[in-house]
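Continuing from the previous page of notes. For each protein in this section, the sequence appears first, followed by its structure tokens. Read the first protein now.
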Amino acid sequence: MTAYVLAYIKEKKMWLLLLAGMAAVYLAVAGLYGYDGAVGNMLYAAWLSFFFIMVGCFFDFLGYRDRCRKLRDALEGGAQGDYRLPNPKGLVERMYQELLCEAVQERRRLVSELDGKQADMADYYTMWIHQVKTPIAALHLLLQRMEECGEGKGNCRQSAEELFKIEQYAEMALHYARLDSMSSDMLLKKYDIGVIIRRAVKKYAVLFIGSGLGFSMGEIACEAVTDEKWLGFVVEQLLANALKYTKEGGIRIYGADSAGNPCGDQAVDYIAVEDTGIGIRAEDLPRIFERGFTGYNGRMERKSTGIGLYLCRRIMDRLGHTVKVESEEGKGTKVILGFGQEME
């Protein structure tokens, strides 16, 4: 209420000062002419005028306050497209409201048009990804037959690795296209996290074999309410990054505490994926989950799209889990996945 009163006085101060000035002029003129009792009579008239002016201002203020409240309600309901404005008071306000209504209608039209374009693009990408899987599957069969016939085993292995990468890039595009509608594609229930991780590792066996890197994974006692497909995608992205940026040494997956320290075989709420790769620069670490950010390593290696870790963070947030990265340039990277908190 106080804010409305102060705003009203500020807006009407010119008229209030003008009325006070007029009253002062009347009193001054009466005093100059020196009529008997003129000043007293004029002062009495001034007080009566002041009283009626205050009554008028009071009722005018009530209307002003109601209009402000309606405008505030319209402003707060604007995100839902609910613009219930008060009736215009005068020609100027009517013209302002007409301009506002035209702008709102144009905004709704543009938003609707943009939503339609995005939906069309998402449908197209989804259709394209499903279509490209057909030749990928055919190439897998051809490579398998070539290996069975003993035709260029070394070349077959390299071709299988590159084909697997193509397939994973297609899967990344599919998950990216489905990210906004992820909630309709989830099946949440309690899973054994170790089983999900082992399936992801098995899927990447062709790259592990070709890389010559060491790998170790102990028994992981961790259960959580999650979605198997989406969490599996996150683990696959972490394995892909570890393989991409690790030239020697190996990759290790183990149960950990919140600080990423190994916890042996006891039940845990955190899983660490650690590699001995090139690491991440300290100045790049705060931005690695931003969409499109590749950092120094991505620019040097020319292999990064800046999408993988962005998807990981978005998916983990949607699942109600956490993801944290610790890294030191030249000494490797550790990614810690947390499953201990309640679902959102």
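Done with the first. The second protein uses the same format. Note its length before scrolling.
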Amino acid sequence: MAQLDPRPDQKFRGRATIRDIADLAGVSIATVSRVLNDRPDVARETRESVLQVVREHGFSTNRGARGLSSGRTGLIGLTLPLVADAYFGPILSGAAEALHERDMRIVLAPTLHEHDREVSLLERLMRGTTDGAILMLPEESADELRTLQHQGFPFVVVDPRETPPDGIACVSAMHAAGAKEATEHLLALGHRRIGAIAGPSGWYATEERLIGFRSALAGAGMLLDPELVAYSDWRMPRGTEAAEQLLSLPHPPTAIFGFNDNVAIGALHAAQRRGLSVPDDLSIVGFDDTELTTIVTPHLTSVRQPLAELGRTGVSLLIRIIEKQRVDALRMELATKLVVRESTAPPRT
């Protein structure tokens, strides 16, 4: 049975149980348990009544006791490539906040983009130390994720590296729609020769954003010119190299769409090296809308991903899986939004 820690000024001596709360609130023990575990199947009036008793009598839930009664630890593992990062940081923050609201905690497991390190970390997380895990940009293949699922360990993939396999819980942004909106923005400004700095070939985000890029061009009656697509590794230096490649063409682009903010800023550096004015000589768009977009000059037009919400949604989905609640959709895509700033303008005639 879950137990509660009473404050010294309340009437019970020793450790009070949820039976005491049930008696005071005039509800069943099962109802109190559902409220304390944030279950959705409780009427709002009943939930408020129970929480009012909890507040008035100074009770606070005891996570350790609750874990013993349910066989859970209250800990959720989270694997991510980097902790101090403009992209991963907000996702981590959103996940941590969502878990804190449920009186749960994160066990961080940085992978540094190393597959063997990630597999080792997952093995440790599965040894009863966590109730489940959020896998952010996991290195594992689809087959490895299915094996993990068959072992019965609850997990949710946030921002998948590869195309998400069927049956695997996954949260991502609407990459194709975001890329399409960014490209349509450049087309609406009058650009017809638009270069793209894509991510690594085969990555889910890369392929989806290429789909959106190609779709916008097709909507304007244009075909994708392969020489206008350069590939990068998501980092600024490679973005600069890719932009140099595009700007060295006999007929260089008048606009460049970087598939993340890092490579878009790399393109900005390449333009500045060549003495090109952004946006007068070259328009540049990024993707992610991290804090970097307003640090650089000019401020970068970018597609905003709901990064913190990716983390929160991943936690919400994972908790439903752990508690064996009904899950309407295992694959969730969150909407993006184009944020127009100073780095885009009509091309010179």
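What the second structure shows: The radius of gyration is 25 Å. Residues 204-219 form the longest helix (16 residues). We return to this in next week's lecture.
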